[in-house]
Specification:
single chain; alpha/beta; TIM Barrel; 2 domains; 6-stranded parallel sheet; 17 helices; 40% helix
Length: 450
């Protein structure tokens, strides 16, 4: 029986077939000189910015990509690959360089978030895994920090594992949401692997199994007296709040953690629940809301005075519901020392190995400037950093907590109008004259041949 999970032993052939067939043709024709590829995003209609995430997983892949004996045997069985190329894959390693914008940095469309500089075959083969690895973390980290931006200090927790698009997505989402300002996750494995705080309350099945709300609440609070968050909407929500109070009082508990509302009119119910809790002497008991929560609902509820202290954000977060895919690309921009570019309508690429410089005014992002890597620029902050050189890691990777701290600090550098979750501002970087001039020369040369 095979479960189909991706792991270190099989991740090398988690790729599109054409990556390998192109690589075989390159190999046959001796085309394996230095190539540079850019990974970048394109403008979208409901995001003014994106938050970078997922780099650590990409680095792990590049440092560990190998084609196992089993991989080679499978590729041979397809009949699509020659013996010599398969022998080459037996000794395959990533020997190139990786330049990337840090996780936790604000990124904008058309900027190279990652640059791969390697022999052409290596740079080509890693394309699919690279895009797959970066897309979801960027989407979820951005969705998370948008929620954080309107939460007014209330607590955000990732509840989305069961609704994520697979186990790998659930892990990536937990990590990315933490980078984006969430306090933790319900995902226990993510807690173990990443050191993220884990949170949980109870399910409706727990109440139904006991058949009585008070009895269920007492059983849970007896085992977890310091962390009892009681789910009150199984039958009648406000009656459930009253039953929670009765249960806690019958146990002599002067304090308990709080309640969770998972359905109904959350504004009205939270206000009434707060009154019941306060009148019963449980002013410190918190109210957690869940069930279809997103940044828009958080803002609306808080704007209208909902006394909600925390949010369980699930489906809408982990699938980035209002932006379920990232319009992104991985394109060749230089080969054998020569700049190249694509001219397709609305998909024009920028040639050269590049650097991005960010400029600030009064602590806020003012401009980004994309330049050729060898161009000298004063004052700006360079964004692309070298992480891998000749196949070896050359930079210490920050802790997840440091990445989260960086993300929240960088969020504050956004101009206020870009933080508005209901507006879309298409911020595009400036381009250096050298790149602009080269673009025109390449266009003339290509069009002259058509």
């Amino acid at each position: 029986m095979r479960f189909g999970f991706v792991n270190k032993q099989n991740m090398s052939i988690l790729t599109d077939l054409y990556e390998l067939t192109m690589a075989q043709v390159y190999f046959k024709d001796g085309m394996n000189k230095r190539a540079i590829f850019d990974f970048y995003t394109r403008p979208v209609e409901n995001r003014s910015y994106l938050l970078n995430a997922g780099l650590e997983q990409l680095i792990y892949y590049l440092l560990n990509i190998r084609f196992s004996k089993e991989d080679i045997q499978y590729l041979r069985s397809t009949g699509k690959f020659d013996h010599d190329f398969l022998e080459y894959l037996k000794n395959f390693r990533f020997t190139g360089n990786l330049y990337a914008i840090d996780e936790g940095e604000i990124i904008f469309p058309n900027e190279p978030v990652v640059q791969v500089e390697a022999p052409l075959i290596e740079a080509q083969i890693v394309e699919t895994f690279l895009i797959n690895t970066l897309q979801l973390p960027i989407l979820v980290a951005t969705k998370a920090i948008r929620s954080y931006s309107v939460a007014r200090g209330t607590v955000l927790v990732d509840f989305g594992l069961r609704r994520s698009h697979g186990t790998d997505a659930g892990m990536k989402a937990a990590r990315a949401s933490f980078i984006g300002g969430f306090a933790g996750t319900s995902n226990v494995l993510a807690g173990k692997e990443y050191g993220i705080p884990i949170f949980g309350t109870m399910a409706h099945s727990f109440i139904l199994a006991y058949g009585d709300e008070e009895k269920a609440f007492k059983a849970f609070a007896e085992k977890y007296p310091e962390n009892a968050v009681l789910l009150v909407d199984t039958f009648d929500t406000l009656k459930g709040v009253e039953n929670a109070v009765k249960a806690m009082k019958s146990m002599g508990m002067k304090r308990f953690k709080g309640i969770r509302l998972d359905s109904g009119d959350l504004l009205k119910l939270s206000i009434e629940a707060r009154k019941i809790l306060d009148a019963s002497g449980y002013k410190d008991a918190i109210i957690i809301a869940s069930g279809g929560i997103n940044e828009y609902k958080i803002k609306e509820l808080l704007d209208n005075g909902a006394p909600i202290d925390g949010w369980g954000v699930g489906t809408e977060l982990v699938v980035s519901a209002d932006l379920p895919y990232l319009d992104c690309a991985y394109k060749l921009v230089e080969y054998d020392g020569k700049p190249v570019m694509k001219l397709s309508k609305k998909k024009v690429t920028l040639p050269y190995k590049k650097q991005i410089y960010r400029f600030y005014k009064e602590g806020k992002i003012k401009d980004d400037l994309i330049v050729a890597y060898d161009e000298k620029v004063k004052d700006g902050k360079p964004l692309l950093k070298e992480y891998i050189r000749n196949g070896e890691l050359v930079r210490d990777l920050p802790s997840l907590y440091d990445i989260r701290k960086k993300a929240l600090e960088n969020f504050e550098t956004l101009p206020e109008e870009m933080k508005d979750i209901k507006r879309t501002i298409h911020y595009l970087p400036q381009i250096s004259n050298k790149i602009k001039d080269t673009v025109e020369k390449i266009k003339k040369r290509i069009m002259g041949k058509l």
